[in-house]
Records
---
Amino acid sequence: MRFVDEYRDSEKARALAASIASLCEPGRHYKFMEVCGGHTHTIYKHGLEDYLPESISLVHGPGCPVCVIPMGRVDDAIHIASQPEVILTSFGDMMRVPGGRGSFFDAKAAGADIRMVYSPLDALKIAERNPSRRVVFMGIGFETTAPSTAMTVLRARAAGITNFSVFCNHVTILPAIKAILDSPDLRLDGFLGPGHVSTVIGCRPYSFITGDYGKPLVVAGFEPLDLLQAVHMLLTQLASGRSEVENQYGRVVPWEGNTKALEAIAKTMELRPYFEWRGLGFISHSALRLRDEYADFDAERIFDIPGGRVADPKACQCGEVLKGVLKPWECKVFGTACTPETPIGTCMVSSEGACAAYYNFGRFTRERVKEATR
Amino acid sequence: MCLAIPGEIVEIMPDRPLAKVDVTGVRRAVNIGLLDGERLAPGDWVLIHVGFAMSKIDEAEAQATLTMLQGIGDAYDDEIDALRESRID
């Protein structure tokens, strides 16, 4: 366990916490957004907010790819799955996400051939083994998974596989951050940048946040001490009037990202003019689709997609949670009508959703919330 | 799906951009085409996203990440279960 102790040492955490407190300007309140769902997880699991002075709030961002898929796209995928000879393949995380007419699990129970896969390469394998079927892969995720879909399309082309296509729902993180910065609902002081997305895109693309918007951003790792150190780096920047992109997670994230992965995305995919995000609405240039050169692998061009828009359930406040305006426990249905077993909103479905993270680690049970707000 | 899991390379497959990795005892092939520039060898650790090695990491980082992942419970177990079903070749 010696490796772990290096990152988990509570002595170090306390020392860092004291140093963080000393950097805070008296009377000033700080709001930092952690963009990535993995960070949200660490924050709740380890109760990191308990280490921070009350003048610092950590606000959860939209970095849970399952959470931001709008209900209409789930319905579209189920429509594809109901077409003749189709096998729809999907990551397990998507299976319970509710659409307007139920989830993938519901559609599967009703007879659709929907299969969970670990990797798009497994979906391609299913296509190879079932030449008389049409195999569609539900591509979801940020820049962490988009390269895998891109590489799989390239492999399908190279191998001459013609019964494989992608229903592309890949989204890009930067336009979502920009939308949040442009939103009047929330005033932020800085960002904890996503660790794994940054292994792909690198650190340079965040410079518009530090330049145009003047907000510091520190790419952070996933250990408790990583996040505390990143908060410390943000405060140090603010105290000295700087707003720069810094990399706390340099042991994993190269400044330039993974150029091979970026090349694979650029070769096969292009930005859509706009895409709907659950809770955030339409955001321009925020999602990827396959390029014309790969149209024969694009499920949206192969199948007739209804493309309907489905409003989120009225009781659900995922949108406010995804924008960081509400804490999960401030949602009216959190922990009562909406639980991981019977989710109403996507933030409760995915284990990386802010609501599920709160719920599972029980830091704020409904009772404690009531006490706290009494 | 969004979790990056660390795996130790046990074998580089000949003629294909694949490596057999060990992820807490589960041995499966993953694609290493996105790490073309790296000299990978058995014993090296990589972070894996949905069947693709995305970055090379050192052992200390791998162990720390594994411990963190094991601490989060279901999501990690689901990912390992999914990996177990994977048949990339």
Note: The interface with chain A takes residues 1-4, 31, 33-37, 47, 49-52, 54-55, 57-61, 63-65, 67-68, 71-75, 78, 82-83, 85-89 of chain B (CB under 8 Å).
---
Amino acid sequence: MLRENQRRFKFDWITIILFLLLVGFGYVNILSASHDGEVTSYFNMSELYGKQLVFIGLTFVIILLILSLEAKFYERFSSIIYLVAILSLVGLFIFGKDVNGARSWYGIGSMTIQPSEFAKFATALAVAKYISDIQTNMKTLKDQIRVAAIIFIPALLILLQNDAGSTIVYLAFFFVFYREGLQQIYLIVVISLILLAVLSLKFGILATTVVALIALTVRYFFRKKKRASKLQYILVLFIAVGFAYGVKLFYEHGLQTHQQNRISLWLRLEKDPVKLEQMRKAEAYNLIQSEEAISSGGLTGKGFFEGTRTTGKFVPEQETDYIFSTVGEEWGFLGSSAVVLLFVFLIIRILYLAEAQKSQFSRVYGYGVASILFVHFTINIGMVMGLIPTVGIPLPFFSYGGSGLWGFTILLFIFIKLDSNKINEW
Amino acid sequence: MRKLLLLTTVILVGLVFIARLFYLQVYGGYDYNIFEDTAIKPEYTYPKRGYVYDRNGKLLVANQPSYDVMVIPREVEPLDSLELVEFCNLLKITKEDYDKKLERAKNYSPRLPSPFVPQLSKSDYAVLQEKMRKYTGFYIQKRSLRSYQTTIGANVLGDIGEVNRSIIEKQPYYKLGDLIGKQGVEKTYEETLRGIKGIKFIQKDRFNKNIGPYKEGKFDTLPKPGKDITITIDSQLQAYGELLMTNKRGGIVAIEPSSGEILAMVSGPSYNPNLLVGRDRSKNFNKLYRDSIAKPLFDRGLQAMYPPGSPFKTLNALIALQEGVVSTEDRFSCNMGYRYGNRKMGCHAHKSPVNMNIGIYESCNAYFANVYRRIMDKYDSPAEGMDNWSKHIKSFGLGDYLNNDLSVGQPGKVPTAATYDRGYGKNKWYTTFTISNAIGQGEVLATPIQLANMAAAIGNRGYYYTPHIIKNIEGDTIPLKFTTPKYTTIDKKHFEPVVQGMHDVYNKGTAKNLKVNGIDICGKTGTAENFAIIDSIKTQLTDHSIFVAFAPKDNPKIAIAVFIENGYFGSRFAGRMASLMIEYYLRGEITRKDMESFVLRYSLEHEYRKPYSGEPFGINRQTTLEAISEEEYENLLNLKAEIPKS
């Protein structure tokens, strides 16, 4: 008995409490966003809030299952879990069903399952497994390519299912790779590419070229070692300009119109008032409604069940991707900031725990968990508040949906399990 | 270092998010206003506007339903050309009107309702109602318009019209398309009459569909009906006064001295109050407003300031008695006028010397010039004398707004020492400079209502009640200021000789031809010189005819001032009209048919054309009377017969 108790106390209760707070508050907001007038029964299965309550109930079953398994199980079976996840993604092309133009669901009776939500933890396990192998050296190109392939396969499959949002999440693993030894130059390249892309779209190729030229010239004259020749700098400049040009071309010809418009709205590229008006009714509609709903919450919000725009269902997809607008309207600045802080604390807590792991597998996996949560949190809330272009991905633990909730729960609790086992590591 | 990348990024993103939330929710100053919330639509129920009754309980103003087509521009869905033609036909507007009106509404606010086509007729409404749901973004708002039960008293009753934007900015109670009292009692008793509209807040979904009351109707209010009011006007007397004013310009104000209640308030020319109801209101209003010659919207009883002329002499007599500078029997000689220095103030032929009684009924200028000098000379300096005199005059309600409940008014003018100090320099003027004040010319200006009030104060022997138009408010009391007497600076005992003098005006003076058997009327004639600028030359026009009176002599029931523009001497039009009004009010019928037929038969329109016709004209003695046709005259008599008895 005594040993049993000691084991239980090794779970990181801070993480678990943060998790419970997020799920609980998420449910409250789903209730608000999905109720139609009176709530007759919280278990009304024809309503979204009723279903979500069942999903939450099942979540605890899943948690118990995960925690009861041997910690070593996850490391040992990570490859198999990864394979199963990949197969389930492939299977979508045959058995999947289309929802909103994305072929990312399995239909089982009236239930639907979205395998991409489960592919995240599977990929995180596989990445952790590969990197923690004694023979892997992240500084070598060979291992870099192999580990990139691990994330590239599910990402590609999801992209082919026309779910661009979920694909972007796999970029989260960059943080993991960087932590595990990826060279500095990659970080510089990534940041430079992002800057180049934004610059070329917003200000055009000429301005981008000028900025790149100035940056490289400064760098050339202040370089510490005279290793690189002038020629190499010029080559880099050409690549940069070529990339900027490519981004522009891709934006104009490679993207679908609605994707193009989302970026155009974000960077405020469109100046024609007629077209802007059209966009306000199409691509920008959700965003405008969501921003207005959040703004109307004020400091303290309108109160639970009192949000006028939420009640009027002014924000489309408010239970799922736009759930944060309900928080904004009904709980105001105080409530929304609290949610932001809960996420920040949760991610920092996971990072802290990851760094404290003795096994590299646990650390890498923990980092993967933190990175995935971080990307979801940033993209979702950033989108709902109009800070980044519209990308449809859920807010972890908050958004309505069983697959998403379970996917994130498994992701998180495998780490909690691994963490609880750290005293047994050497 | 590598450990810190994600950590710092997380913290950074958290801070950016909180900053953004702060910007949107707190810094943005988002002040929640339920009227601005797209998800909530307020629906108004307009209460019944209070009715207006005359002093005898006759209904003057009631209501009729009206239907406005309202638009919320951002909810409007483009109509195809066929639908558009149909919609325009239903509304009786052109396609250009449609675009223009929609644009105007959008400019005001894309989110808030604006009136699109106001005040549809009942039949237009019936046709439109069935098809309304086809036109998204448009709806019909029911309101109540005025229904005048009479054709008289436009200047008294006033009208209601749509609020303008500057009113909305100052008084948020009003929303675009609401109606508000614009003139007359509709304006002064707006808040009493209008009641308070009821609001229902409706929760809308994003398809603009009603999904029920907002917060179970927690903020909803029921409309509070407006209160009925009874005004002091005697509609029969008012109608008679307006009839007498036909073809003339001027004002009549009749007051009940024992209460200050305004019995009649006529301004000529007048118009039918029904012109300012419904869809044609703005068209008709503009027509009246633009008539810069006859100025029908200018209430001559309240707004026209003229030199009061001879009636003002009665006040100088009262002041002289109060100051003890003359006795009633002090006599002054008059040889066709009063000479001072090398100047002369003319007078007409009458016996001389004159005492106060003769002075009043003969309206002797020389007598009052002497009296005025004595009032002034009682003090060491003309300035002191002037200020003392001014104080007495002002105690009769002259020289300032009466602080009444009428929507318009003018203060008139009573000079003080400061007035002359400004004109001549301090202490550089003498009593002779201001001698015209003795006979009501000079620097004195008064409105007919002020003169009527002056007559009431004399009739009351020393006090008056602020003239007012409200008699009774349903379930409320009228303001105390209207039921508290205001005392003049003259002692009661000094009034009798002056009242007697005014009585003798009728017995043997300037109004002896206006006598009505069986009624003791006290009155005073007056004329006022007036000028117009014609082709940039200051030209004298025919005098204004002025008369003030009260009757009966003791415990008067009516005090009246009549003012007729270019009516020439006082008894000619104003005096006759005053006598007729008094008889009509006290007796309910007219025995002096000769006076009535004179007033009705003769028009002054030819006088009013003079300055504009370009033909040369003379003044006063060269005036002729212009009779209206026999047919028109018959018509007027018929109108008189049709005046409803109250």
Note: The mean pLDDT of chain B is 88.
